[in-house]
């Protein structure tokens, strides 16, 4: 990988590790959104409306994608002593 790309990734991870409360909020919002979409999918499965299924599936994917950086940020915050040793 290019050195500039590596430096950008490391600086982004360091930035994520500096504020864990933001990452926890992001993880909680994404997880809640995903859970609500899953619950709606289960509750509306008898209706067999294809457009509703696709909308809820997209909301589910958006919730998961939104939560992933929060999870990574919390993991980096916990591992920052190991990851960013000089």
Q: What is the total domain count?
A: 1
Tally of extended strands? 0
Number of continuous helical runs: 3
Taking the alpha carbons of the first and last residues, their distance comes to 21 Å
What's the overall geometry?
elongated
Q: Major beta sheet, specifics?
A: none
- Rg: 17 Å
What is the H-and-E element order? HHH
Question: Portion of residues in helices?
Answer: over 70%
Q: What portion of residues belong to β-strands?
A: under 5%
| SS class | mainly alpha
Average pLDDT value?
91
Uncertain ranges: none
Question: How would you describe this protein?
Answer:
By secondary structure, the chain is mostly helical. 86% of the residues lie in helices and 0% in strands. It has helices at 3-18, 20-43, 50-83. Helix 1 (3-18) packs across helix 3 and helix 2 packs antiparallel against helix 3 (50-83).
Features of this protein?
86 residues, 3 helices, mainly alpha
What's this model, at a glance?
With 86 residues, the chain is an all-alpha fold. Helices cover 86% and strands 0% of the residues. Helix 1 (3-18) packs across helix 3 (50-83) and helix 2 runs antiparallel to helix 3.
Note the topology:
Blueprint: H1 3-18, H2 20-43, H3 50-83
Helix pairs in contact: 1-3, 2-3
